[in-house]
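To whoever is on call:

I kicked off a structure prediction for a single chain this morning and the downstream step that reads the tokens threw a length-mismatch warning. I double-checked the sequence; it's 206 residues and nothing unusual in it as far as I can see. Pasting both halves so you can look.
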Amino acid sequence: MLDRYAIAVIRWPLKQAAVQLTKWGIKPDTVTLSGFLIGLLAVPALALQVYWLALVFIIINRLFDGLDGALAREQGLTDAGGFLDITLDFIFYAAIPFGFALADPASNAIAASFLLFCFMGTGASFLAFAIMASKHQIDNPVYANKSMYYIGGITEGTETIASFVLMCLFPTYMAWIAGVFGAACLMTAATRVWAGYRTLHDVEVN
């Protein structure tokens, strides 16, 4: 829901950084892999309940995720790079609830499991529609520079990261934050399934 506004704010500084990194010969896939590996360090940090450090790794991961996209737009979008980016993003998103479950299984495991269940709904609806949209050559003017169709919803990347930040800042309320955010994810999955089905149905009928 907030991604289009967040992108508008960070687009210019990311582009300037991408221009400089391109001059240094840095490739988008290198940034994607580096950001992913740094992001995974949040899991042991969470397991050890060093929440401030986990937050640092999460923020670095997200900065790298924005930067690899800016680099790709500067150097040329590729399907391979887009595939790598979205796949590692989804693994990273799943890793954070897992880390909180490790931190305090008694308090967090059920909430983390619920959130992962909800992520499955948002992720499956997102990727399934992207495949079908590509097949039918459906354009997305909102995210025209993405390597695949980005179907929106109440919860997108910005809301996901905001929830992770809140969990790190207020770890004792992780279960409540996960519950509220998970419910919003279920609403997103439901609206995506309905909107995606109606869109594809109308395309095929017409």
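Update from on-call: the warning came from a stale cache, not from the record. Cleared it. Sanity check on the structure: Residues 3-205 form a domain with the Four Helix Bundle (Hemerythrin (Met), subunit A) fold (CATH 1.20.120.1760).
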